């Protein structure tokens, strides 16, 4: 028996879908922000259009052979910096903006008009909103960042539940763990921090992430204690690191990918029943990378 574990995903390859399933004629744009520029629920896709403050919205599933049409939602008076769908409601969308506000939108089904006013407005903040994310297990709670400030909001009351402190520079990423118990943040001061928002406002743990402070992104894996960060090293090479919050002083594993003048990698992950696959895509690269996650990045 081989002493090396062989991944069943080693021969995985990507194949494009039928052209009839493609969504074409999309007028999208990439903005220089820390957030996501496209998000999907189980029913809708929302993305940054080529008009500042305007999102494109399209049905995820086509109906028979009819062509899907993009409708446009005027959200903000400035760039949309991040967006997220509620995990409890396919039609509830949160958008953050450089106009310093967070807005929640009740979207409609296929063929129905989009709203002209938001259902809820949070803020304004002192600086542009950078990133936001709904809580994965509690309805009506989200985390957002603006400058050095990280807030956990009660959406119904339109008030912050707590503010997470200790960041010394721009917060570039804030993500809930899968059970929603803790929040991981990445900051331009090169530090990763772990917070338990219910217990205290200060970080319970922190460590240096990447040697370069450009655009660090975070994503939790399927294992509760494991976190992946993407960023740059001193040589401006893009890299990914795997962290265990129980041994947070150094990364479990790291992989160097390439040198890029563009922004960092967008981190995402997908789980199989027994072996997670981690996907990475860079805005300046036409390729999508995959890695198997265990105690090493393979």
From TrEMBL:
<dbReference type="Pfam" id="PF00400">
    <property type="entry name" value="WD40"/>
</dbReference>
<dbReference type="InterPro" id="IPR001680">
    <property type="entry name" value="WD40_rpt"/>
</dbReference>
<keyword id="KW-0009">Actin-binding</keyword>
<dbReference type="InterPro" id="IPR015048">
    <property type="entry name" value="DUF1899"/>
</dbReference>
<keyword id="KW-0677">Repeat</keyword>
<dbReference type="InterPro" id="IPR015943">
    <property type="entry name" value="WD40/YVTN_repeat-like_dom_sf"/>
</dbReference>
<protein>
    <recommendedName>
        <fullName>Coronin</fullName>
    </recommendedName>
</protein>
<feature type="repeat" description="WD">
    <location>
        <begin position="164"/>
        <end position="205"/>
    </location>
</feature>
<dbReference type="InterPro" id="IPR015505">
    <property type="entry name" value="Coronin"/>
</dbReference>
<dbReference type="InterPro" id="IPR036322">
    <property type="entry name" value="WD40_repeat_dom_sf"/>
</dbReference>
<dbReference type="Pfam" id="PF08953">
    <property type="entry name" value="DUF1899"/>
</dbReference>
<keyword id="KW-0853">WD repeat</keyword>
<dbReference type="GO" id="GO:0003779">
    <property type="term" value="F:actin binding"/>
</dbReference>
<comment type="similarity">
    <text>Belongs to the WD repeat coronin family.</text>
</comment>
<feature type="domain" description="DUF1899">
    <location>
        <begin position="3"/>
        <end position="64"/>
    </location>
</feature>
<comment type="function">
    <text>F-actin regulator involved in anterograde Golgi to endosome transport: upon ubiquitination via 'Lys-33'-linked ubiquitin chains by the BCR(KLHL20) E3 ubiquitin ligase complex, interacts with EPS15 and localizes to the trans-Golgi network, where it promotes actin polymerization, thereby facilitating post-Golgi trafficking. May play a role in the maintenance of the Golgi apparatus morphology.</text>
</comment>
<keyword id="KW-0963">Cytoplasm</keyword>
<feature type="repeat" description="WD">
    <location>
        <begin position="73"/>
        <end position="108"/>
    </location>
</feature>
<dbReference type="GO" id="GO:0005737">
    <property type="term" value="C:cytoplasm"/>
</dbReference>
């Amino acid at each position: 028996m081989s002493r090396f574990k062989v991944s069943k995903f080693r021969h995985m390859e990507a194949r494009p879908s039928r052209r009839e399933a493609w969504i074409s004629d999309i007028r999208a744009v990439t903005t220089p922000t820390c957030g996501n520029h496209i998000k999907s629920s189980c029913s809708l896709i929302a993305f940054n259009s080529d008009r500042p403050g305007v999102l494109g919205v399209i049905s995820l599933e086509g109906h028979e052979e009819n062509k899907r049409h993009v409708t446009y939602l005027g959200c903000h008076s400035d760039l949309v910096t991040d967006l997220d769908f509620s995990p409890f409601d396919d039609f509830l969308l949160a958008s953050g903006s450089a106009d310093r506000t967070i807005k929640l939108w009740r979207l409609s089904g296929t063929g129905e008009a989009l709203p002209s006013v938001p259902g809820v407005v949070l803020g304004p903040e002192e600086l542009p909103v950078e990133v936001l994310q709904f809580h994965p297990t509690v309805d009506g709670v989200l985390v957002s960042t603006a400058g050095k400030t990280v807030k956990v909001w009660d959406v119904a009351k339109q008030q912050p539940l707590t503010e997470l402190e200790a960041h010394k520079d721009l917060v570039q990423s804030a993500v809930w763990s899968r059970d929603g118990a803790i929040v991981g943040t990445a900051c331009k001061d090169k530090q990763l921090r772990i917070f338990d928002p219910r217990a205290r406002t200060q970080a319970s743990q922190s460590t240096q992430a990447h040697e370069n402070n450009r655009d660090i992104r975070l994503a939790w894996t399927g294992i509760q204690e494991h976190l992946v960060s993407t960023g740059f090293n001193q040589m401006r090479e893009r890299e990914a690191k795997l962290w265990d919050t129980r041994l947070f002083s150094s990364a479990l594993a790291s992989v160097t990918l390439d040198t890029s003048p563009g922004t960092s990698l967008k981190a995402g992950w997908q789980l199989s029943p027994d072996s997670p696959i981690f996907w990475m895509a860079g805005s300046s690269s036409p390729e999508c990378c995959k890695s198997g996650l265990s105690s090493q990045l393979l």
